[in-house]
Amino acid sequence: MKTPTEATESDGTPPSRDVPEAIKAIPVRHWGRYVSAVVVLVLLALLVRAFATAEGLRWGSVGDFFFDDQILEGVKNTLVVSVLAMLMGLVLGVILAVMRMSKNPVTSSVAWGYIWVFRGTPIYVQLLLWFNLALIFPILDIMPIYKDEMTDVMTPFMAALLGLGLNEAAYMAEICRAGIQSVDEGQTEASQALGMTQAQNMRRVVLPQAMRVIVPPTGNEFINLLKTSSLCSVVMYEELLRKGQNIGNTSSAVVELLMVATVWYLVITSVFSVGQYYLERRFARGSSRQLPDTPWQRARKNLFTFGRGTGSGAQGAGGIGA
Amino acid sequence: MSTMVKAEAVHKSFGPVHVLQGIDLEVRTGEVFCIVGPSGSGKSTFLRCINHLEKINAGRLYVDGTLVGYREKGGKLYELRDREVAAQRRDIGMVFQRFNLFPHMTAVENVMEAPVQVKRVPKAEARKRAEDLLDRVGLADKRESYPAQLSGGQQQRVAIARALAMDPKLMLFDEPTSALDPELVGEVLDVMKALARDGMTMVVVTHEMGFAREVGDSLVFMDGGVVVESGDPREVLGNPRHERTKSFLSKVL
């Protein structure tokens, strides 16, 4: 019914039809959404008010203790034991994963047994066992090189580190194995056909691609580990929770100090979640045609196009999350 | 003319499945040797045996006069170590049906990877060479693209450049156009034709009868793990002698 427009003559493109007027319809009103939003907001406000005005919770002391030297010491200790245990878990985990996939039945069954034991028992029990190792072996005697009382060796820090690290290794082993096995076999064939050795293939071709599968759960593992480190208070390790409880008990501000610990844990896990986001982005290279913008880049773009009506608007707020 | 590949009674089984049941053939240096046949005939398996991606169960396979994957000494066969097998494969380029480019590397990084890692070529030199090779396969403007950003035909041309970067004396092609959209087949075949004109020794498993007829110097038709018929491609394709060859060709031509 419509005739080709004149504009097509000059540029030689096939004749196109007039573009009809863009649809401007009145959108459906979702009244249910408004109602539920209001209900949720009211409930949330009530909850906040309840905590803010609670008699038993002196928010002033929460602020006072937040940067207390003892608390900061506890934060430091939590970070130290978590990072070291994670490193231990990573190194041991990669070794265990390689052992599990090896063709040697002895090494693969040993790795299997390790994972079976350390994943099959609660970490709480493992921590207590390490702490009480002196009851089993009063003397640590590594024949030619070292001999000492076990209680001198198995300090709270050592018990915490071994308990968390060895447990983490079992989980990391499975994550690494899944990552390595997720890489297409054709990749190994291609690198072999080019004359690369198995070690070169692993280092240059398989692991970089496995990282894409390994990094996200590893980030989650680390954040879990940070939180699990609070269990180390049972082996007298002076991490954040224990420090908080110490102060809380002596100054009769138990819940205030628990609040301090809670907020600190949230701060730490949030910081590491952001780090994880950028790490995942780094290893996503080549897997999709175009990397998505970071929340920061997106915010900047939205800022520049603000008010011009050309921006794509807020396409969902920042994608950070553990 | 010297011999590049020599197969003597090559057998290969996967468990109970007897895939290759005695292959005897000879690929001369500088020729384009085509292998055709129905799927499951063992043609890809045979190709993969040539660079020891598959171990053969019986017979002997030589590339450029050297036994593949083993050392024969005093009437006994010794398996080669990982490192020695890798050294043998350096001189044999391979192009896969599914390209198998390294997705975490750009086109130019894909091409320079093996020279840098395996031959210890300095990076700058390897990059220069890789850029030249990408020019040669018509992808000068795609150097910095990741494989996911390239079409199938472009990916396969990068894969050919990657294999050429090791200066192979023999190139193996495993159905290089089978995973491509029909309109992209031509660009890959053009690169292969140019390679053939330059005198590269090529073993090509293919369903492209036109290519075999045009540039092939020899052709074998395989079925059921044996060579049914062999000879000049134009002769075999134009005037097949065996019933099996006739019925296969009547279906694909």
Overview of this protein structure:
- Chain A has a two-stranded antiparallel sheet with strand order 1-2.
- Chain A is built from 14 helices and 2 strands.
- Chain A is mainly α.
- In chain A, helix 4 packs antiparallel against helix 12 (240-250), helix 6 (123-131) crosses helix 9 (156-182) and helix 11 (198-228) runs antiparallel to helix 13 (254-283).
- In chain A, a hairpin with a 3-residue loop joins strand 1 (139-142) and strand 2.
- Chain A has helices at 7-11, 31-52, 59-66, 69-101, 105-120, 123-131, 133-136, 150-153, 156-182, 185-193, 198-228, 240-250, 254-283, 295-305; strands at 139-142, 146-149.
- Chain A has a single domain, classed as MetI-like (MetI-like fold).
- Chain A is flat.
- Chain A starts with 6 loop residues before the first helix and ends in a 17-residue tail after the last helix.
- Chain B has 253 residues and is an alpha/beta fold.
- Chain B has a single domain, classed as P-loop containing nucleotide triphosphate hydrolases (Rossmann fold).
- Chain B contains 9 helices and 12 strands.
- A 6-stranded mixed sheet of chain B has the order 8-9-10-3-11-12, sandwiched between helices.
- The longest helix of chain B is centred in the C-terminal third of the chain and has 16 residues, at 182-197.
Features:
heterodimer, A: 322 residues, mainly alpha, MetI-like fold, 14 helices, disordered C terminus, B: 253 residues, alpha/beta, Rossmann fold, six-stranded mixed beta sheet, four-stranded antiparallel beta sheet
Write the layout of secondary structure elements.
The complex is a heterodimer of chains A (322) and B (253).
Chain A (H helix, E strand, L loop, with lengths): L6 H5 L19 H22 L6 H8 L2 H33 L3 H16 L2 H9 L1 H4 L2 E4 L3 E4 H4 L2 H27 L2 H9 L4 H31 L11 H11 L3 H30 L11 H11 L17
Antiparallel strand pairs in A: 1-2
Helix pairs in contact in A: 3-13, 4-5, 4-9, 4-12, 5-9, 6-9, 9-11, 10-11, 11-13, 12-13
Chain B lengths: L2 E12 L2 E12 L3 E5 L6 H8 L7 E6 L2 E2 L2 E4 L2 E4 L2 H8 L2 E4 L11 H12 L4 H14 L15 H13 L5 E5 L7 H16 L4 E4 L3 H7 L2 E6 L2 E6 L1 H6 L4 H10 L1
Parallel strand pairs in B: 3-10, 3-11, 8-9, 9-10
Antiparallel strand pairs in B: 1-2, 1-4, 4-5, 6-7, 11-12
